[in-house]
Design brief:
By secondary structure, this protein is an all-alpha fold. The chain is built from 13 helices and no strands. It has 2 domains: 165 residues, no CATH class; 79 residues, no CATH class. 41% of the residues are buried.
Length: 258
């Protein structure tokens, strides 16, 4: 259960739904009943996904040309260098410039960095109370999920980037859920109940699928989003859903070694 960890408040309570929790779930269900997610619940996504796709199409450029493109974005260039100098990659060699960093982390590594830098604004704290409370830890969890899902996808014979993007964006469902609850004016005080945590977990997965309806990043990712719109994560046979289930367990234990 993710919510107690996001709130940093210990374990969930063994009890029935409170009145506030019932209203919170009703607010989410009202959103799920709509034909499409309201733009204000995930406002940055519409602009960010096309930017991501445009950048990803450039990752098959020669190293020097790609380095030139990446260097135009100071934040992106700094993140590529930071990744290449992390303990995971440092064992493979040292880098002195951006071209060497790109060569070291490889195409998949550069794609992952681009996704991380461009998509982080989706997790920026919204104006509501719950959204602000969970925003920092939600991004931390999304990064953990991305790293572990990438490793798990590779081990399962899938594209590592498919796992990475699935892990990174899966928590976007939580962003939508928190904003829906805040928009409804529901205040969730105290420790959450076990029943509520399980119910919001399930709905967050569905919201991820709904949010990803127009996120044509990769074919495998699109298939996962379509599956999430109708099948609970714990019942899904989608290959990336299995990757996500394993990554969820690992994300609570420790950050990935990247």
């Amino acid at each position: 259960m993710l919510l107690p960890w996001l709130l940093d408040g210990g374990d969930a309570e063994e009890r029935a739904l409170s009145a506030a929790e019932t209203r919170a779930l009703a607010a989410i269900d009202a959103v799920l009943a709509l034909p499409a997610l309201p733009d204000e619940l995930l406002p940055r996504a519409a602009a960010l996904i096309p930017q991501l796709l445009a950048m990803l199409r450039q990752t098959d450029l020669p190293v020097q040309a790609l380095a030139q493109q990446v260097s135009k974005d100071v934040v992106l260039a700094a993140e590529v260098l930071r990744t290449a100098r992390s303990p995971f990659y440092r064992a493979r060699g040292t880098v002195s410039d951006l071209a060497e960093a790109i060569t070291l982390v490889g195409e998949s590594g550069v794609q992952s960095v681009i996704a991380r830098v461009l998509l982080r604004p989706i997790f920026e704290p919204p104006p509501g109370t719950l959204g602000r409370r969970i925003a920092a830890r939600l991004w931390e969890h999304a990064e953990r999920m991305a790293g572990h899902a990438s490793e798990e996808a590779r081990a399962a014979g899938l594209r590592a980037f498919d796992g990475y993007i699935a892990g990174l964006l899966h928590d976007a469902g939580w962003t939508v859920a928190a904003r829906a609850i805040d928009r409804a004016g529901v205040a969730l005080d105290g420790r959450p109940g076990v029943v509520f945590c399980a119910e919001i977990d399930r709905r967050a997965h569905t919201l991820f699928g709904r949010a990803g309806r127009g996120w044509a990043i990769t074919a495998a990712f699109q298939a996962l989003c379509a599956d999430a719109r109708s099948v609970p994560l714990d019942q899904s046979t989608d290959p990336l859903a299995a990757v996500l289930r394993r990554a969820q367990v690992l994300a609570f234990e420790a950050p990935p070694q990247t």
